[in-house]
Design brief:
single chain, alpha+beta, Aminopeptidase, 7-stranded mixed beta sheet, 6 helices
Amino acid sequence: METERLILRHWRDDDAKDLFEYAKDPAVGPIAGWPPHQSVEESLDVIRNVLNQPEAYAVCLKDDKAIGAIELKLNGRSDIFDSDEECEMGYWLGKPFWGKGIMTEAAKEMIRHGFEDLNMKKIWCAYYDGNERSKRVQEKVGFRYQWTSKDVDVPLMHEKRIGHVNMMTREEWEAENS
């Protein structure tokens, strides 16, 4: 998939160095619920075993450099919903690219893909308390607040957090994009 500034494509083994470059930053992973990467080998393992899902994409600049990730988690990969007609969007972006509208651009394309290409009826999105950047992306692209949960398990960080859940229906998206 392509936008004005970005290419969203499946991850490749040769992205491991780029992934490590941004995923090692302690400002990036922990706020999203995962620890900073410790090596290029760990990043390669994540590409092969986590980012290998059908709707997981590298967020790339037009030069094809991976600078972040975005995924539509299908049924069975989220604890928010239990329907084949719903998915959950998750994302992160390398710190040097924050504040430039890049993730908003990527998220809009993924939402379009979810509704038009995958025929989803609802797309969910969540963020942990304190992750104001993620909250802002969700607001900009049209997600509506649904609920807040206390004591959300964050297994990779071995802790519990407050989580906020948002959602968008296909009808809402169509009304905004017609």
